[in-house]
């Protein structure tokens, strides 16, 4: 529990954006392929969990592949393949930088496009590898021999270690062994079976992206899986449209998968389908000629902006009356339709929100009744959502009258559970593969400081000159300390002049100290104001939650009283019917007795008449 609380605090800090919230990255890495036992550890948590297909991976997240196990990440069209027994960290990821670290094992990195403002870096215990151009690269780290090798198939790389930078050209390999001693490059060895399989997967993905290039941009995560799993067409109303193949008649988007909580975005949808990434983090869904169809929108350059889930969360009295009454608290959502604006629940600037919705030319939807897919409400018990449980198996039937009256709600107060952070806690064996001791703790050397994320991973390159500032970072690289000898001044024979100069110097120093003190006070005052604002917002959240609890309790009491009144009326009706039945039976008994008496009298008369006739 102590470890989870610590991780929760770090994730909340990341979700809030640190002391000053900033826009999240427009892209994430997608866990696109798993074979064998692959484990995942989110940033800020100590516990490992089983890797999950389609899971978004972001800054500070770690992966471990067990023996005979493999994994693959995609960041747009860039592919990162992990060998067995690889200890890998995605150290930092934003719109222009991919920075990863490898303390053990091997990675194959395929970068089909690298723009002039973008860079990629692989940090190892022996040195930092900068991938300078688009191309195919391989990095191997051998912990037993303390060696790192860098192989360039195509492209160009630089290895920085021991105060020295070496360039590695296509078809060459560089080895760094024993305390960062760098050897000369040599002819690259031929690729082994694993590397050949990685290249084959990359070529297949490139072909799939080429087939879909008229519909979606190549750097949209998961776009390579769409052509083989559905049909592309152009619609006059929506533009590019993709219809999934091999789905059941009752299939619906955001139904077959589960929810997790990933900072800084918050609640994030993880779909079960092998192709289930792009259609759930970009674009919109609609019903088209009796089928569900995905509309990616019209992209006009720039990275497509990732979203955690393009849905509207909803609630409503009828939904609570007809569904929650039987199943307890309920979470419900509607897939957003074409041109429906997505307002993220996490902190973001208006510029970011505009880029997030630019491809769909969206408009804000103010009421749930205006959503195109308002009749397609998906609802589950709340604990199934927050517990990272499969949604499809627990989806509740939502009556039409309940779906027609839902309203949109905020999920800002929906707090995650430990399961929300970990996702799938165990693999098919019921356990989790954990890296051996020391596999992930080996320090790595970095060339670029990791901007504000996990500083423990950073280590200066010994003796190396700093790299020039990059556009992706707001943290300047460390500057070398430069010691210079001040020029000698001639001695002034006038003591008065010397004293005056000393006084001026003292005043200048006092002014400098005063300015520093004023700046510190301003910073402290600003922090106090921000803390007061955070407390005010927290108090407002507590009051809103308390008011919500009070309203829910009042509603529960109203329902209890209404139920009691229904039961009282039912009991009165039962007693009335029982009394009527008793009266009916009494009347029937009276009539029976009267009938018997009549028959007896008639029989007596007949007997009397017979006797009289006999005389």
Question: If you had to describe this structure to a student in words, what would you say it looks like?
Answer:
The protein has 615 residues and is an alpha+beta fold. 31% of the residues lie in helices and 25% in strands. It contains 9 helices and 28 strands. The chain has helices at 2-16, 193-211, 278-281, 317-327, 350-357, 382-386, 400-403, 418-422, 495-614, and strands at residues 29-35, 38-41, 49-50, 56-57, 61-65, 70-75, 78-82, 87-93, 97-111, 119-124, 127-131, 135-142, 147-154, 157-161, 164-168, 172-177, 181-182, 186-187, 230-235, 239-244, 257-262, 266-271, 284-288, 291-295, 311-315, 330-335, 378-381, 407-408. The chain has an 18-stranded mixed sheet that branches. Strand 19 and strand 20 form a beta hairpin. Residues 1-20 and 453-498 have low confidence and may be disordered.
Mean pLDDT: 83
Give the oligomer, counting copies of the same chain as homo and different chains as hetero.
single chain
Distance between the termini: 113 Å
- As a whole number of angstroms, the C-alpha radius of gyration is 36 Å
| Percentage of β-strand residues | 15-25%
Spans where pLDDT lies below 50 across 5 or more residues = 1-20, 453-498
| Approximate shape | elongated
- Percent helix among the residues? 25-40%
Instruction: Report the major sheet.
Output: 18 strands, mixed
Number of strands: 28
The DSSP helix count reads: 9
Task: Report the structural category.
Answer: alpha+beta
